[in-house]
Amino acid sequence: MPMKYFTPEEMKPSKKTLDLIREFAHSYQVMKMNARNGKLCLN
Length: 43
Known about the structure:
Helix content: 40-55%
Structural class: mainly alpha
Distance between the termini: 42 Å
Order of helices and strands: H
Oligomer: single chain
């Protein structure tokens, strides 16, 4: 039986915040795959 999680509506991040997190995660993953060390800046 799957476990259910309850998150109050006011605590859910906005779509814009989730998109920013996804963009950062993707950029970080690409840097790691290319074995690059550097600074990550999102505009």
